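hey so i finaly got around to running the thing on Post-GPI attachment to proteins factor 3 from Terrapene triunguis. pasting the sequence first so u can double check i didnt mess up the copy paste, my clipboard has been acting weird all day
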Amino acid sequence: MWLTVGLYVQEGYRVPQFHGKWPFSRFLFFQEPASAFASFLNGLANFVMLTRYKASVPPSSPMYHTCIAFAWVSLNAWFWSTVFHTRDTDVTEKMDYFCASTVILHSIYLCCVRTLGLKRPAFANAFGGFLILFLACHVSYLTLVRFDYGYNMAANVAIGLLNLFWWLGWCVRNQQRLPYVWKCVVVVLLLQGLALLELLDFPPLFWIFDAHAIWHISTIPVNVLFYSFLRDDSLYLLKANSDILKID
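ok and heres what it spat out for the 3d tokens, dont ask me to read them lol
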């Protein structure tokens, strides 16, 4: 691979990709060390913030269990992202892609529960069932029919935009009543903005940092801010429920 890269560069051509991937300098057994390490740090940030959330929010908060489930889904996704960037195989690639889609879908479910499900739990349960069915069909098609990268990208963009506009719409409607929603606004806008890094497909800097690795590095503080929003919102709901019970 490196002999081919050297010949291309020597003759003044662009650095080639191999099976659709840039050449990376390995570190120990890590095929893409920057992306693997950044994925691990994202997972670590999720775990630390999950621990802080559980320490400050009691289980009686209406959103507690949904937020905890979201945290574990996210941890699972970052685990497989770390594994995939450490060792790229057919199985690890699929697990990375499928778990990433699961996080987006669970964020949509989280938004559904927060905006509608607290007053209409039956609707939230039905919508959650629909999301599970969609994920099952999505995974089945990519696994049993063919692994279509274009379809997978289009599907993730579509559910990502639904997630973006649903959260933004709720935040705009509640910005006066809930001053902490600015955190959620920043998170969803940053995630969409940082996703544009994926379009900057350039050869790895120092044969380590490509656009995907930089994207993973950039999302680390975003995790912290989103959990801060979830904590503030869960405590607000807990207080609101307590005030209602006092009135009753």
